[in-house]
Description:
Layout (H helix, E strand, L loop, with lengths): L3 H14 L7 H10 L21 H10 L11 H14 L2 H13 L4 E4 L15 E4 L5 E7 L10 E7 L10 E7 L5 E6 L8 E11 L4 E2 L5 H17 L10 H10 L6 H28 L7 H24 L24 H7 L10 H12 L20
Parallel strand pairs: 1-4
Antiparallel strand pairs: 2-3, 3-7, 4-5, 5-8, 6-7
Amino acid sequence: MTDAAELRDRARELLAAHPPATTDSMDFLRARFDAGLAWVHYPEGLGGLGAARSLQTVVDTELEAAGAPGNDPRRIGIGLGMAAPTILQYGTQEQKERYLRPLWLGEEVWCQLFSEPGAGSDLAALATRAVRDDKGDWVVNGQKVWTSSAHSARWAILIARTDPDVPKHQGITYFICDMTDPGVEVRPLRQITGEAEFNEVFLTDVRIPDSRRLGGIGDGWRVAQTTLMNERVSIGGMRIPREGGMIGPVVKTWRERPDLRTHYAHQRLLTLWVEAEVARLTSERLRQQLVAGQPGPEGSGMKLAFARLNQEISGLGVELLGEEGLLYDDWTMRRPQLVDFTGREAGYRYLRSKGNSIEGGTSEILLNIVAERVLGLPAEPRTDKDVAWKDLAR
């Protein structure tokens, strides 16, 4: 078994062979991946060494201390947090070898084609159709929505209905879609922030080879659960330092602007600071649990806390600043490559946080998951579980 000492030695050997100060950033990242130090718990040859997930911090600490370049996780978060673990679990060896290296390097950006306008929060009700032709390929038609990074993505993880004659959860298949293929159209969705980081995607007779299918035909819902569980952990279980995240800018304002302080604001800030710290420590425990296996429904609870706290903390930030909090630096329509939740002014943080309770699973759906799968409460009655998708009212 690879231990911490061996990983530390491997990291130092990498730094000696490719000094960060004189090595091109991409060359260093390629060497790191090939040395098995990208994600150490992945198999050898796929950026890892088959080591314990908990040992990744040993490598990261050593490389960060030496000033080694990173792969900009914020820009490629969907690939790292959602596509990669799904490909690792369900992909063929050829798929793993083709997609994981450029994904981790950031050479290829990924997006997620799950949500649809007509399905709402009931993802299993999706209507995008994939029909197999006489050559064995799949022809896909439909529309997806709220697709982050679709305007810069090369690949997408896609779920589509392949059998309308069975209940909605059974007739779904999971694919990898080339966003540069004919028939893929990406349109921006301008948000309340003025930007368009989200998109709607139209799929018209898009041909996907069967070699880009993940998992079995009709098994897409089970494969998608791996993606969704990892998504919620990646959103709600991010590693941040104390006073990191949304609470940081508000605390900074409090310390630097004593003229804005009130007793009421003090009490709210103390309460939210404690809640943010509890959430941070809980997410650390969640990451430690991941060492033992795949993420479970607990990630839904963390994502719930993430959304609520971001919205309450950003609201306090605006109130604390008074009239200044109403200022907004730039309403220019942009299509950003990444989202900076905390690097801009209070008005942006307040507006952007409104999406936190929708993206990555709506809070209402996540409350159901926590109630049923974490607390063991009785499930809601579902009259459509055994009804063929084609017979559902829409």
